[in-house]
Write a structure and sequence with these properties.
By secondary structure, this protein is an alpha+beta fold. The chain is built from 16 helices and 19 strands. Strands 11-10-16-15-9-12 form a six-stranded mixed β-sheet. A hairpin with a 3-residue loop joins strand 7 and strand 8. The protein folds into three domains: 208 residues, Multidrug efflux transporter AcrB transmembrane fold, CATH 1.20.1640.10; 88 residues, Alpha-Beta Plaits (2-Layer Sandwich), CATH 3.30.70; 121 residues, Gyrase A, domain 2, CATH 3.30.1360.200.
Length: 531
């Protein structure tokens, strides 16, 4: 007699029960969903931008600023290399002019030695590719210009890094509703379903959020206004909410926000004003302690994107690894700043080159059309299976219903966003889900035609068709994986739905159908297969 292992029955029962529980919230109104007990799932499928409506931004890396930053860093490297030379090469005029970093060698006889010291900087130690080229000017300057290949690679890396930082800023809880993907070498597309105002996105994305700590150089306002500031310093303006004054600070930061491990909004216990509390990692704590110990009594400016948040005086060494930053914050600005600092600083500024708001009414039409198409696909599939295989076709239809429930449950459980291409993938899955049953049933028919008993025919149908079923669905999974890896946005939505559908269809077509046929066989004990 046809036997099914007990663990298979238990597995199907547990998975089906969990599928019904996770899929249920999708089939009830939102008011009723709120009344579901807390111990049961309440998460419904997230609708994508094309179905739910929302905002879309197309961002581009500010390559001019990125180039300027790299040239400024390169000028520092050039200056450091000349200082470390033996004998030391004397120079002046370290800076960036137009598209070149430059230093001026004061002794013409040291020009050749200076070029020999600097040329190794023009090649990447990791790849050996050209990073910059050096030229000598008649007035004694050595200029370095970054190669276009290096800048393209830098833009690509900056865009990829910005994708993850933007994701942490606007989707800190990982709900997977926001779609963020790189386009080309220097562009990023952001799609936020349900966000009707793109200004909120731009506010969080727009800031670089680079926090740096600089020592303040005491210069009179008159000297600062006249540009009479010490070498190696710069004048920085106050942050808009801080209501401070311009400060003259050292150009190179003593400390950067990369060492932050925590940033949270809070209130000062003494004044009651909103502040930003932060904590440093172990290395950052050691560095901050050393800096504040060596500069006790001096002022320390905290800059956000080269704007002064605050510039307090160091009264004593700060060695606890924690602190707070005041800047006339509101609850909202303190929270937004904390989110951006936790996400990290953008490697370069981003500019918005296109913004769109998608009306949700378009999504309602797409959902209605998709629901009709899914219903038609299901009905046609049901009729075909019943007409072709009779009672066994009905078992396949039951498995198809379970398959549909499991797909909805899986997408709800993992928080996947359903897009219009995702609906297409769902419809395609419904139409293809019975392929495994067709292979099994046709194998049964062949075995019965060869004179085998019903039990042996059923057993052979499931066992001998499995290799073909695995091969057919494995190729589909590989194709979906390729689409997910190299696609973006809607293509990923299609690949994701198709992948889930393939896994659940194999599960239901093999295990669910096998259990139903086994129960029927025990009760009916047929002499021939009704197929």
């Amino acid at each position: 007699m046809l036997q099914v292992a007990r663990w298979r029955v238990i597995l199907v029962a547990v998975v089906t029960a969990m599928g019904i529980a996770f899929a249920f919230p999708n089939f009830v109104p939102e008011q009723m969903r709120a009344q579901i007990p807390s111990f049961l799932p309440k998460q419904a499928i997230n609708l994508g931008l094309d179905l739910r409506g929302g905002s879309q931004l197309l961002l581009e890396i500010d390559t001019a600023t990125l180039r300027r930053q790299q040239l400024d860093n390169f000028a520092d490297l050039m200056a450091q290399a000349l200082r470390d030379a033996e004998p030391r090469i004397r120079f002046t005029g370290r800076g960036v002019v137009s598209d070149a970093a430059r230093v001026r060698v004061t002794d013409p006889e040291q020009m050749d030695a200076a070029l020999r010291m600097l040329r190794p900087l023009g090649q990447s130690q990791a790849t050996g590719n050209d990073v910059a080229t050096f030229t000598q000017t008649p007035d004694g300057f050595i200029e370095a210009r970054l190669s276009e290949t290096y800048m393209r690679e830098l833009s690509r890396q900056a865009a990829q890094q910005s994708v993850e930082i933007i994701r942490r800023r606007i989707d800190p809880n990982g709900t997977s509703e926001v779609s963020i993907a790189r386009q080309g070498d220097s562009r990023i597309i952001v799609q936020a379903p349900g966000v009707a105002d793109p200004e909120m996105l731009k506010e969080r994305i727009g800031q670089t959020a680079l926090m740096t700590f600089h020592m303040v150089r005491e210069v009179s306002p008159e000297e600062s206004a006249a540009g009479q500031i010490p070498p190696g310093t710069m004048v920085v303006q106050p942050y808009p909410q801080s209501q401070g004054t311009p400060e003259v600070v050292e150009r190179r930061p003593r400390f950067t926000g990369e060492r932050l491990t925590r940033a949270n909004p809070s209130t000062d216990q003494q004044t009651g004003e909103f502040v930003l509390s932060f904590a440093l990692d172990r290395q950052g704590t050691t560095q901050f302690c050393r800096i504040t110990r060596e500069n006790t009594g001096q002022r320390f400016a905290i800059l956000l994107d080269n704007l002064v948040l605050t510039a307090p005086r160091i009264n004593e060494p700060i060695c606890g690894g924690t602190g707070q930053i005041s800047g006339n914050f509101t609850a909202e600005t303190a929270n937004n700043l904390a989110v951006m600092l936790r996400a990290g600083a953008l490697p370069a500024p981003l500019s918005v080159i296109d913004e769109r708001t998608v009306d949700a009414s378009l999504g309602a039409d797409a959902i209605e059309s998709g629901a009709k198409a899914s219903a038609i696909a299901g009905i046609v599939t049901f009729l075909f299976m019943v007409l072709a295989y009779g009672l066994l076709g009905i078992f396949a239809c039951v498995a198809l219903v379970v398959n549909f429930i499991l797909i909805i449950a899986a997408m709800s459980m993992i928080g996947a966003a359903l897009t219009l291409p995702g609906i297409a993938g769902l419809i395609l899955t419904i139409a293809m889900a019975v392929d495994a049953n067709v292979l099994i049933y046709e194998r049964m028919r062949e075995e019965a035609g060869a004179g085998r008993s019903p039990a042996l025919s059923i057993d052979a149908g499931f066992s001998r068709a499995m290799i073909t079923i695995i091969d057919a669905n494995l190729t589909t999974i590989l194709a979906a994986a390729i689409l997910f890896q190299f696609g973006a946005g809607p293509v990923r939505g299609f690949a994701w739905t198709l992948s889930i559908g393939v896994i659940t269809s194999v599960f239901t077509a093999v295990l669910v159908t096998q259990i139903l046929i086994a129960w029927w066989f025990r009760m009916a004990r047929p002499k021939t297969l009704p197929i």
